[in-house]
Write a structure and sequence with these properties.
- The chain contains eleven helices and 18 strands.
- The chain is of the alpha/beta class.
- The protein folds into two domains: about 200 residues, TIM Barrel; about 120 residues, Lyase, Ornithine Decarboxylase, Chain A, domain 1.
- The strands form five sheets. Strands 1, 10, 13, 16, 17 and 18 form a six-stranded mixed β-sheet that branches. A six-stranded parallel β-sheet has the order 3-4-5-6-7-8. It has a two-stranded parallel ribbon with strand order 2-9.
- Helix 1 packs across helix 3 and helix 3 packs across helix 4.
- The chain starts with a strand and ends with a strand.
Length: about 350
C-alpha cells in the first residue's frame, strides 16, 4: 500500500509559466532554488526549458552546478543569487554560472560577466545605490536586479518606493537589462516588469499575493493513507503531551504522514485536511510519521483510503495559513520519503 503520495503536475507548471510570462510581457526566468520549491528542480527546469525558458535563478552554487549538469549543452544562463562567495570562483567558471554581485567585496573578487543586485529596501543582500554607482562603468554587467519586499501586498507603498529607487539606479547601467519582479511583482503591472521577471512560488502553485489565485494552477498534491480508524471517547486526549482533549466522542483517522514528510509541527492546532468532500481538522500534535484527524461522520473512513493534505481541494496557500506558515515553507519542506509521481499529459 502506498502510504504517502506526492503528485507533481508538470503540465500545470507549464500553464503557470505561460500565465506569468504573458502577464509580464517580457522574459520569464524561473527561480528554481530549494529543489524547485520542493517540486524537483531538474524535472521543473527541463520542462520549463521545453516551454521556452532560457534563463534560471538559483540560490546556491551547488544548485547551479546540478542544474548545469542536468541541462547539459543547452545554452541556458544560470544566475547564482549568493554571488561569488569565497573560494567559489573556479567552480562558477567551470559550470558556466553567472554570479549575482551583492557587495563591493564580491565585485572585486569576480572579473567575469555578472549580475548586479541593488538593495532598494529589503535590507538583505545587495549593493547600496552609492556602491552601485562605483560600478557603473563595469563593462561585464549582464543584468541589474533588485527584489521587492512587499509584492504580496499590492497596496503597500513600499512597492512604489522600491520601484522609484530601482529606476534611479538602473539608469546607471543603460547597457544592461533589468529585473525587479518575482511572482507577486508580476501582477503589480507592467511598470514592474522591466526586461526580465523571476517567477518562483506561483510557478509551483502558490498565489502571487499569499492566497489562492484562479489564474494559477495546482502543481502539488500531497496525500496520505489512513493507517487506522479509532473511536476516541469524550474526555480522552490525543497525541503527545495530551495537547488535545476530545470534547465529545470522535471518530479519528490516523494518517501516514507527519513532520518528516513536510507537514509542519506548527500545524497543531489549526491544521486541516480534505476528505469526503470537506475540510477535516487535525487533532493533537503532529508526530514525525503520523497525524490524527477528526473523521467523525465520514462513511468511507477506513485503512487505505487517501486523504488530501495539499491539492486542488486544499490549495497550498490555504493549507499553509491553517498551519500557521507560508506556502514557501510548506512546499520547500516536502520530504523525499513520499512516493513521487510526475504527471505529464501532453
Amino acid at each position: 500500500m502506498t502510504v504517502t503520495r506526492l503528485t507533481l503536475d508538470l503540465d500545470a507548471l507549464a500553464r503557470n509559466y505561460a500565465v506569468l510570462r504573458d502577464t509580464a510581457g517580457v522574459e520569464a526566468a524561473p527561480a528554481i532554488k530549494a529543489d524547485g520549491y520542493g517540486v524537483g528542480a531538474l524535472e521543473a527546469a527541463l520542462r520549463l526549458w521545453d516551454e521556452g525558458a532560457r534563463s534560471f535563478h538559483v540560490a546556491r552554487l551547488t544548485e547551479g552546478e546540478t542544474l548545469r549538469a542536468a541541462l547539459g549543452e543547452r545554452t541556458a544562463t544560470i544566475y547564482v543569487l549568493d554571488g561569488p562567495t569565497p573560494g567559489s570562483q573556479d567552480r562558477l567558471r567551470a559550470a558556466r554560472l553567472t554570479p549575482v554581485i551583492n557587495s563591493l567585496e564580491q565585485a572585486a573578487a569576480w572579473d567575469g560577466a555578472a549580475a548586479i543586485h541593488i538593495d532598494t529596501g529589503m535590507n538583505r543582500l545587495g549593493l547600496t545605490a552609492a556602491e552601485a554607482a562605483t560600478l557603473s562603468d563595469r563593462p561585464d554587467v549582464v543584468l541589474v536586479m533588485s527584489h521587492l519586499a512587499c509584492a504580496g501586498k499590492p497596496a503597500d507603498p513600499m512597492n512604489a518606493l522600491q520601484l522609484e529607487r530601482f529606476r534611479a539606479v538602473r539608469a546607471l547601467f543603460p547597457q544592461a537589462p533589468a529585473s525587479l519582479a518575482s511572482s507577486g511583482g508580476i501582477f503589480l503591472g507592467r511598470d514592474y516588469a522591466f526586461d526580465q521577471v523571476r517567477p518562483g512560488i506561483s510557478l509551483f502553485g502558490g498565489g502571487p499575493h499569499d492566497r489562492p489565485d484562479a489564474r494559477i494552477s495546482t502543481v502539488v498534491t500531497l496525500e496520505a493513507a489512513i493507517l487506522q480508524v479509532r473511536e476516541v471517547p469524550a474526555g480522552e486526549t490525543i497525541g503527545y503531551a495530551g495537547a488535545f482533549t476530545a470534547e465529545h466522542d470522535l471518530t479519528v483517522g490516523i494518517l501516514a504522514a507527519g513532520y518528516a514528510d513536510g507537514v509542519p509541527w506548527s500545524a497543531h492546532p489549526g491544521g486541516v485536511v480534505w476528505f469526503e468532500g470537506a475540510l477535516r481538522r487535525m487533532v493533537g500534535r503532529i508526530s514525525m510519521d503520523m497525524i490524527a484527524v477528526d473523521l467523525t461522520g465520514c462513511e468511507t473512513a477506513r485503512p487505505g483510503e487517501m486523504v488530501e493534505l495539499l491539492g486542488a481541494n486544499l490549495p497550498v496557500d490555504n493549507a499553509a495559513r491553517a498551519a500557521g506558515t507560508t506556502a514557501y515553507e510548506l512546499l520547500t519542506r516536502l520530504s523525499t520519503r513520499a512516493e513521487r509521481r510526475y504527471v505529464v499529459g501532453r
